[in-house]
Amino acid sequence: MEEQDSRHRTVCVTGGAGYIGSSLVKKLLEKGHTVHATLRNLDDHSKVGLLKNFPEANTKLRLFKADIYNPDEFNLAIQGCDFVFHVATPFQNSTQSSQYKDTTKAAVASVESIVKTCLRSGTVKRLIYTASVMAASPWKEDGSGFKDSMDESCWTPLDLPNNYYRSNFLKDYTFSKTIAEKKLLNYECKENKLELVSLACGLVGGDTVLSYIPASLGCLMSQPLNDPNSYQSLEFLQELLGKVPIVHIDDVCEAHIFCMDQWSLQGRFLCASDFITTKEVADYFCRYHPDICIADEFLGRHGSTVRWGSTKLNDVGFKHSYDAKLIFEDSFQCLRKMGAFE
Question: Residues 26, 60, 171, 177: which is the catalytic one?
């Protein structure tokens, strides 16, 4: 796949203070790009300070207030940009918002608004959407079990019984990411002025520039942490997908930038370097970190026989740098540095 020239660009990152967003902003600045990053609240000094302390931030970073529940607020941040990374996503419905009744409505509205803003801008060449593998379940349409493999053709069925979901949050998040991603990709056939890329990421681990444990990292490490709430989410992922796709935060950021750097690119790409079971996670820490005591209820289970069948991102030239062991080790050292195992 041919890459564009390496000139420095102006890009927008929505949700710039989140787990993926903050690491992506940092990496883009390091590569010399000018970054427009959005935050819900510019009066949050901890988040603003985090971003402003990145190298090159003084001259290359502009911060904009924009809330996913008020999608028109993203207009100013997108103006003059060459590429947009739509990373922000609603996790829980805002009780102060009367505009949207749930997270799905908010997620779809933000996608629609940002696509239209990119089209109106006259400058944005490509919109890269941070999707989730939770929207790519390999369940067969007739509900009889899993397909042989999980790839870009898989979509999570929205007619699963309510008791399948372990919490309202997991149901709402799965619905919002699935419907919003489908909405984005439907624009592909209607508009040819803007390239649309959906990057469906696995469960993200590794280090973080944040001062707290991000939900994704906490979920991946829920077994050595003996955290019942996060472990519930991890088990749900395995039930939904057969096994758990995992990916390192550095690979996630590099994959986003890779998708920007290509001369032309559009469509859906799954992004994960390993496809593991909850039992394999527990077995790893029991073997290599025996000082960490994992309670019996967190020792995990064997998954299904479904295989990771996605090669689309690799086929266009992207290479993951981190395997499962490196993801586990970097995640472990990150949490140890934060004092999680004291």
Answer: 177
